[in-house]
Amino acid sequence: MNRREFSTSFLLGLSAVAISANAVAQASRGSAGAASKLPTVKARNIVLVHGLFADGSSWSEVIPRLQAKGLNVTSVQNPLTTLPEAVDACRRVLDRQDGPTVLVGHSFSGMIVTEAGVHPNVSALVYVAARAPDAGEDYTALAKKYPTPPASKGVVFDGDEGRLTEEAFVRDFAGDLPRERALALYAVQEPFKKALLTGKTTNAAWRQKPSFYAVSTEDRTIDPDLERFMAKRMNAQTIELRSSHVSLISHPVEITDLILRAAG
After folding, report:
1. 3-class secondary structure per residue, 133-184
2. What is the C-alpha separation between 23 and 34, in angstroms, rounded?
3. Residue pair 84/111 in contact by the 8 Å Cβ criterion
4. Which of 24, 75, 150, 251 could bridge across to 48 with cysteines, CB 3.0–4.6 Å?
5. Nearest partner of 257 among 56, 66, 117, judged by Cα
6. CB atoms within 10 A of CB 223
7. What is the dihedral sign for C-alpha 35, 36, 37, 38?
């Protein structure tokens, strides 16, 4: 092979490699965003944590789908009192797991996942339209860099307890659910204590564990661009769903698939 033939062959080879790499990258972005650099460990335990304006039953569409795959599933009843107490409730459940465990959080409970996710049993983290602060970060200050979501105006307090109004819950929290379903969820929402919102994480488990994120593009409770920022910062494998804040209820198949991916 002469020099000209070698150069042509070499350049064609590079071009083929570049095209192949680009195709893989596009497929990855289309299905799961930027892949985490950390390897995924096979897990048989799933621990789910609910956020504000909800209780453990908010995972009821996802739980049977995970159980059908033979996974051991526990939904934590988040006390919604203070961040340390909420984290302790989660840790007690994690202590009971018998091996690698995927820790999943929705909404506010991303704070809990971020803090408790350093537990040795936790093999991967999944954030569902969830907060994902860095260690010691003021999440409120971070959120103020983005437009104020409409649901914020619907928070009302009875003394120390906060909840969403019916209008805000149906329109801004669970906007893509049938009205009857949204009203049933509104009826069982757990009130939260003001002190819960003042807590800061001391850990950032997503810096140590493989992380996955489901962005809700129609979210009116957490700004979707803030969700994208947090997902990108943690180098999470990311999906985007045309969903309200409660994608775990309106898109349970996609959320289940993301958790299964995290479980290896």
Report:
1. CCCCCCHHHHHCCCCCCHHHHHEEEECCEEEECHHHHHHHHCCCCCHHHHHH
2. 14
3. no
4. 75
5. 66
6. 16
7. negative
75 strand-pairing partners: 48
DSSP code per residue over 68-113? TTT-EEEEE----S-HHHHHHHHHHHHHT--S-EEEEEEGGGHHHH
Please give the mean pLDDT across all residues of the chain: 89
Count of C-beta atoms within a 10 Å radius of residue 76: 24
* Pair of tokens at residue 117: 């996710």
When pLDDT is averaged across residues 91-111 and rounded to a whole number, the result is 98
Q: What is the residue whose two structure tokens read 């996802």?
A: 62
pLDDT recorded at residue 31 = 36
Q: Which pair of structure tokens corresponds to residue 199? A: 């807590």
Span 127-183, pLDDT tens digits: 999 999 999 999 999 999 999 999 999 999 999 999 999 999 999 999 999 999 999
